Amino acid sequence: MNKDELRTSASGGVPVTDDLVDRLAEEAEAGYDVEVLRSRGGRWAIGSADR
């Protein structure tokens, strides 16, 4: 994949532009409040006793 293809790719229908990448990077570098993030669920850990 070349640089032009990366710029025209989409994530969930939203074009991934250099501006979007910069804004997301700034947000990530600022940090996230772990209490606000939602649990995504998923598979149980191997050997998990919480089943």
| Sequence of strands across the biggest β-sheet | 1-2
Structural class: mainly alpha
User: What pattern of helices and strands is seen along the backbone?
Assistant: HEEH
Q: Give the termini separation.
A: 42 Å
**How would you characterize the largest beta sheet?**
2 strands, antiparallel
Q: How much β-strand is present in the residues?
A: 5-15%
Total strands: the figure is 2
List low-confidence stretches: none
How many alpha or pi helices?
Answer: 2
Rg over CA atoms: 17 Å
Give the helix level as a range of percent.
25-40%
Morphology: extended
Explain how this protein is built.
There is one protein chain. The longest helix has 13 residues, at 18-30. This protein has a domain at 1-35. The protein has 51 residues and is mainly alpha-helical. The mean pLDDT is 77. The chain has a two-stranded antiparallel sheet with strand order 1-2. The protein is built from two helices and two strands.
Set out the fold topology.
Blueprint: H1 3-8, E1 10-11, E2 14-15, H2 18-30
Antiparallel strand pairs: 1-2
